[in-house]
Amino acid sequence: MSEYSNPHPFVPPTNFKLGSRTWRVKLVNSRRKWLGIADGHRCKIKLNTRRIRNNEELHHTFMHEMAHAIEFTLGWKLSEKKIDALGNMLAQIEQTARYHG
Ligand SMILES: [Zn+2]
Questions:
Q1: SS3 of 50, please?
Q2: Which of 17, 59, 61, 78 can bridge 36 by disulfide, Cβ–Cβ 3.0-4.6 Å?
Q3: Distance (Å) from CA 98 to ligand 1 centroid
């Protein structure tokens, strides 16, 4: 049972800029095991809709791949554990943010 409350379902962007480069996000239907993949050389994130089971998982997978995109852009090399932690933090900010105005 998920405690993920959804004031608004997460919708992944089609593209975004990081530094001077534009990243594209593709939804794919792949039999491969991975949920998501980030290719820093091609600036491409793929999200595997065959393996992703719900909106929470879509959100977390996207944020995880975005953490990889940040890692790549900054020329860092982080462990998968740290990428996961960063992705979770980014997801939490996005999920809980309320806005002025
Ligand atoms: Zn990863």
A1: coil
A2: 61
A3: 28
**pLDDT means per 10 residues in the chain (101 residues)?**
68 96 98 98 98 96 98 97 97 92 86
- What is the C-alpha to C-alpha distance for residues 78 and 83, in angstroms, rounded to an integer? 6
Distance 12 CA to ligand 1 centre (A): 17
What's the confidence (pLDDT) of residue 1?
A: 45
Helix, strand, or coil (residue 10): coil
Specify whether the CB–CB gap between 91 and 66 falls below 8 A.
Answer: no
Say what the pTM is.
0.91
CA of 10 to the centre of ligand 1 (A): 19
- CA 10 to CA 25: how far, in whole Å? 14
Domain ranges of the chain: 15-96
Partners of 38 in the β-ladder: 45
